[in-house]
Amino acid sequence: MTKPFAITLDPGSSLANHTGSWRTLRPEYLDRLPPCNHACPAGENIQGWLFHAESGDYEAAWRSLVQNNPLPAVMGRVCYHPCETSCNRTHLDSAVGINSVERFLGDEALKRGWKLDAPAKATGKKVLVVGAGPSGLSAAYHLARFGHKVTIHEAGPLAGGMMRFGIPKYRLPRDVLDGEVKRILDLGVTLELNRKVDDVMESMKAGGFDAVFLAVGAHIAKRAYIPAGEAAKILDAVQVLRGMEGEEKPLLGRRVVVYGGGNTAIDVARTAKRLGADRGDDRLPPHAREDAGARLRGAGGAGRGHPHQVALDDQAGGRGLDHRREDGTRRQGRAAAHGQDGDA
Which of 18, 87, 172, 250 would bridge with 95, disulfide CB 3.0–4.6 Å? Predict the structure, then answer.
């Protein structure tokens, strides 16, 4: 039998042939996460469920996906998909459309009525979850799968948290959100709305809970200091988007300036356009896809810079905006009736 050349070398020939210490070292197998999995903030096994989706078994792909993330239809619409940025395929042509496949699987599950697997055997433990936003719902889902009895106390009138009150309906239809929330509740999770928790320890004692998970959310917007005095009314993005869920929509006026550089700023600009504003300007560029969608609907951008102050314009008989560009130059003109801090 003919042996490979390296094996036929004498034990001492390694040094003579400058082949290194190949006789004493061996390769070590390292099990590392794929770059897409590693970049996913939800910890999904993207490589795993994409395999099933590529094979055409969409239900198996969905079941693999919801092992980690119970809200695929929501995430498929609102996630900024860092997995695609890290995708190895970008070095060849373009990233795999992970976010689009996730949305498809989430919608397919709602359309076909796929149910989550039954929880494990009951443990007899009771857990209180404070807040029915994405964190609280996810915690309730995973705790229920372990067999714990879960009760959610939500201070608001509806479940969803910032998914409902911070994301416009055109980006996240409420029937999609409600469908995925209901699927979690069908696992035996109890949801109590308009139930504010003032004293955590007292609530635990009263309900006989063994543990509590706090998911109170982040409903307070970041604020930018812009001197305005009595010249203008400045709202933050959270106020505007939350107001869209009520019966009385926010009154923004005909001209709106949005100060902010993220997708929230674009959400407010597009919302203002839908409320009848002639023009909604954002001051910094967000993700390209969001920016293109805004411009398509008439909410344009005004370039990089920041408002220096808002003051009464005596000559124009209205309000004036003193805008500082990145190069330090100033731009003055008629301002919006309402300014928005879009960096929420």
Answer: 87
Q: Which CATH architecture has domain 233-341?
A: 3-Layer(bba) Sandwich (3.50)
Residue 309 CB burial class (10 angstroms; 0-12, 13-18, ≥19): middle
pLDDT in tens, 266-322: 888 888 888 888 755 555 454 544 554 555 455 555 455 556 565 555 444 445 555
Given a cut of 50, is residue 336 above it in pLDDT? no
- pLDDT band for 343, please (50, 70, 90 cuts): very low
C-alpha span between 181 and 187 (Å, rounded): 11
- Which of 52, 48, 42 has its CA nearest to residue 76? 42
CATH 3.50.50.60 domain position(s) in the chain: 126-214, 233-341
Q: Which two tokens stand for residue 65?
A: 């996906």
Q: Are strands 149-153 and 190-192 parallel, antiparallel or unpaired?
A: parallel
